[in-house]
């Protein structure tokens, strides 16, 4: 589907995790949440290889790409994956966000989020308390925005 | 030589529940020490070699690199060590009094089966559906082909001293929120697949859910259906302590394990996979595992099997049997039947995102923890199995359902501690 065709009916969103992560309840939750907000979701499921993720996003041209990871490898995997996505000309301006449990150490000082933003993410949502922030972020995106 | 099935059968005949940890370390010396601690625990135990996630997903090169560089993995990389290393881990530990099972999670486990056989082991677990749909991107058809080859390989290892053993993981699908009728159907169907491809010693899994009464009915139904459809194999039921979002408090975690041990004994299950009080936070230590094994064994020793008819029938057995029969009617080859059943939606695992799962079925938890279908999709399930006019779960209701067991057991532990006078509030 072409980006921008979602119009007022909502965004076309790709929800995904990365190759090393087999958890799916986080992906199911995000799909329900986004659908309740009126958006259409393509859920790529667990253990998505980098090349599958890039190919699916180039084909679908989504309005938003949501990466979720809870196995503690999300920081390392996310740095690599976002570089690959931004290298695709079609995805250079696509909003791409990441959230979940991104490192193996629980609390941290924000350095992880800053590095992820610098690597190409538009927003970083760490841990469960960030659901409200994620909802606000999605609401701030114009439906079917042409970038 | 270790014989897994006969060991469990002897314990059951003696009225003793076999308890088993999940345990896997990448360093052979630590793995051996963990097995020895399991063997020496004050309980009737079997040992576990849990494999690491690189080995599970077939990334043998990554596992080898980690081993070469001394990077610790989250399990034992059985395909990265020469079989002599694994034999030395097991030497003098695994024997007739202490069988060891390999636990992996692989949709295409040929190399794992070859490696465990080369190391002298004959017991493992999984299944063509249960290790494909929840965790992998492998097409179901390919997983079925792979598991057929693996079953045949394992069955061919039969000798006078060792009857190979295979456990279904189908009764644990998704860990939580899968109604028991479907868990039973998948567990039995995988058991039938194993028997079709040569196994004669099989265990059937069932994972503890959120209502003890519903679980008791479910395991009773699983026992009855297994007796009908797998009458000619050595078989037992294995209970998994709750696999979903775990209680945060040590007291809540302990109460949940106690409940699982009682469930196993009341329903005539022969083996229990334990969880520890550290479950909500990290991979448990060997000491935490030993304490969980010993406490579960102690609780089990104080419980008795329920008399026949003790569990009210709400229709779980009929639902499970209906699903199994519908699948078996699809094709004389059970592997083909399983692939067709998922393609038609006759089997449809709720909230499972695999492309070969129809994804139309939806479940709910009611106020007392019982699981129901809010929408059975195309599965042949009658009205009685559904919640009347129940809408699908919203995102916030899903979070609530996922954490129901955690909340209720943490609350029970808090109340118990207050009642005991060791008030947390003080």
UniProtKB/TrEMBL annotation, chain A:
GO terms for molecular function: cobalamin binding; metal ion binding. It holds the Pfam family B12-binding. Coiled coil: none annotated. It comes from the Bacteria. InterPro entries: Cobalamin-bd (IPR006158), Cobalamin-bd_sf (IPR036724). CDD domains: B12-binding_like. Residues 10-147 form the B12-binding domain. This is Methylaspartate mutase.
From TrEMBL, chain B:
The keyword Isomerase applies. GO terms for molecular function: cobalamin binding; methylaspartate mutase activity. The keyword NAD does not apply. InterPro entries: Cbl-dep_enz_cat, Glu_mut_E. Keywords: Cobalamin, Cobalt, Isomerase. Residues 369-390 are annotated as: Disordered. One of its GO terms (biological process) is anaerobic L-glutamate catabolic process. This is Methylaspartate mutase. It comes from Kitasatospora indigofera.
């Amino acid at each position: 589907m072409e980006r921008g065709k979602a119009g007022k009916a909502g965004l076309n969103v790709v929800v995904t995790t990365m190759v090393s992560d087999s958890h799916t309840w986080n992906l199911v939750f995000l799909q329900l949440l986004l659908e309740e907000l009126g958006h259409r979701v393509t859920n790529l499921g667990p253990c998505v290889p980098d090349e599958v993720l890039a190919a699916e996003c180039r084909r679908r041209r989504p309005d938003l790409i949501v990466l979720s990871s809870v196995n503690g490898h999300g920081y390392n995997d996310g740095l690599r994956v976002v570089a690959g996505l931004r290298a695709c000309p079609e995805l250079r301006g696509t909003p791409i966000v990441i959230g979940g449990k991104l490192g193996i150490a629980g609390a941290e000082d924000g350095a992880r989020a800053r590095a992820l933003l610098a690597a190409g993410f538009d927003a970083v949502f760490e841990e469960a308390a960030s659901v409200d922030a994620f909802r606000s972020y999605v609401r701030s995106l114009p439906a079917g925005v042409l970038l | 030589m270790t014989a897994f099935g006969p060991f469990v059968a002897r314990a059951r005949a003696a009225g003793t529940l076999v308890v088993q940890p999940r345990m896997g370390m990448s360093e052979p010396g630590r793995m051996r020490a963990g097995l020895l601690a399991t063997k020496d625990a004050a309980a009737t135990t079997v040992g576990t070699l849990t494999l690491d996630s690189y080995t599970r997903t077939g990334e043998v090169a990554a596992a080898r690199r980690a081993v070469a560089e001394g990077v610790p993995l989250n399990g034992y990389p059985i395909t990265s060590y020469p079989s002599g290393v694994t034999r030395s881990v097991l030497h003098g530990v695994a024997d007739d009094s202490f069988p060891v099972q390999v636990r992996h999670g692989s949709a295409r486990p040929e190399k794992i089966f070859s490696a465990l056989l080369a190391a002298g082991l004959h017991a493992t677990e999984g299944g063509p559906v249960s290790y494909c749909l929840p965790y992998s991107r492998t097409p179901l058809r390919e997983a079925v082909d792979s598991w057929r080859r693996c079953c045949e390989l394992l069955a061919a290892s039969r000798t006078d001293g060792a009857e190979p053993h295979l456990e279904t993981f189908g009764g644990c699908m998704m860990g939580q929120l899968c109604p028991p009728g479907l868990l039973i159907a998948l567990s039995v169907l995988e058991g039938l697949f194993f028997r079709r491809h040569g196994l004669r010693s099989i265990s059937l899994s069932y994972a503890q859910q959120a209502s003890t009464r519903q679980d008791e009915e479910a395991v009773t139904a699983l026992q009855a259906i297994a007796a009908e459809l797998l009458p000619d194999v050595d078989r037992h039921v294995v209970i998994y302590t709750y696999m979903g979002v775990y209680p945060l408090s040590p007291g809540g975690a302990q109460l949940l394990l106690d409940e699982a041990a009682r469930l196993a004994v009341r329903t005539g299950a022969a083996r229990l996979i334990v969880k520890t009080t550290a479950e909500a936070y990290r991979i448990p230590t060997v000491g935490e595992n030993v304490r969980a094994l010993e406490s579960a064994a102690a609780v089990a020793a104080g419980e008795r099997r329920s008399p026949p008819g003790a569990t009210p029938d709400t229709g779980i057995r009929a639902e499970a049997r209906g699903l199994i029969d519908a699948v078996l009617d699809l094709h004389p080859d059970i592997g083909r039947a399983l692939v067709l059943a998922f393609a038609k939606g006759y089997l449809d695992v709720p909230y499972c995102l695999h492309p070969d799962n129809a994804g139309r079925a939806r479940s709910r938890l009611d106020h007392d923890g019982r699981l129901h279908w809010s929408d059975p999709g195309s599965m042949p399930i009658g009205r009685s199995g559904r919640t009347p006019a129940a809408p699908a779960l919203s995102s916030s209701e899903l979070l609530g359902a996922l954490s129901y067991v955690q909340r209720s057991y943490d609350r029970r532990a808090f109340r118990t501690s207050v009642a005991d006078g060791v008030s947390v509030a003080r």
